[in-house]
Target: Ribonuclease
Amino acid sequence: MVGLARLASAGLELNACCRLQRVSQAGTRTLSGTFYSEHRQSIFAALQTPFYSKLNTRNSYRNSNMAESQEDTPVDIKAGAFVPPSIHSEPLLVGQSYSHFSPVPPSLLPQDPSNPASATPCCLGVDEAGRGPVLGPMVYGVFYLPISQSDPLLREAHHFDDSKVLTATVRSSLMETLCSTGSDLHDACGWATTALSARDIGANMLKPVGVYNLNAQAMDATIDLIKGVYARGVNIQEIYVDTIGPPATYQTKLQRIFPTAKVTVAKKADSLYACVSAASVCAKVTRDLALEALYEDRKDPADHEGDDDDGTAMVWGSGYPSDGRCTGWMRSNLHPVFGWGPECRFSWGTAKDMLEAKGAGVKVEWPADDDGETSRVTDFFVSGDQDTNELGYWFGTPAGLEAF
Model:
């Protein structure tokens, strides 16, 4: 027995035709029969909520592959707030992972297109934000610039540091400067982010076979971002990565994949290397605004009664399980069939415990799928107790050795 609220992370979705579907690499199957007779009222009631109505209108976009776009309609978090171009509204609000790459400054491109090595030697930093929360995406960021300008431009001129040390206002200001045409940061630096959605994180971790754990997802996101920068013609000669686990294994793998660069993986790299500090700011600003955009899309109008005029207070708080506002919001917004929306990581213990609590949600037992590809060799032999196949024996029955 499993909670129906785990449907989203089990590869299930509600489509625009009010049908519950199982989505897999092999295709989409519509679930019907007893399930509908018992639960259709709950399903149709869910369809009437603003959140699921929005998801249904985006159904065609949701079924596309992982998006990587440079332009998208930005989410208006609040009047006057700076929203970086790494906030892509469509994939974000339907729970789809996506990547964003800034334009490469012309000064970093090779002078001779046929000779990539003629480009300015650059260093690149990698860091993440949002590894532990139960709500919102985990965002990986990379930041690159000429090696000679790393400390003078980032540390001395703009005072970049570990994003956890900087205030939200300072981080936002640095990000705005980075994205402003004509600024020294914009002219000399490039950056990119990948937002791994809560829906995708949970679905990958809850696979019945071939579990795709968080560390593997993080490693792949890092590799893809670095490859994306190389593909844009940037001459990366030094790579610095912040890590939570043992650095040696991580560094060995990255060095093997990027042999032309010197790779350094270290704990607390965001406070040791300026380019990693800048990457942490890009990741943190994107993560925070993505969470806020999800909240604006998901919130109940009553949630903001009594909030400050600037609208910065989110009822679900920071999204971390240790935040009482987060767990309180999850308990009060737990749908008996679907649990929560694409903002939630269903693989987290916090979500699992709430879903499996007595009386928290509707229960259903899924029959084993028959994919039509599980035939055994013995299925092609006729046994004595099987019914006679009259058509097969129209011209007689097989003769045994005793007939000769």
About this structure: Residues 274-298 form the longest helix (25 residues). The chain has two domains: 1-63+334-367, 86-291.
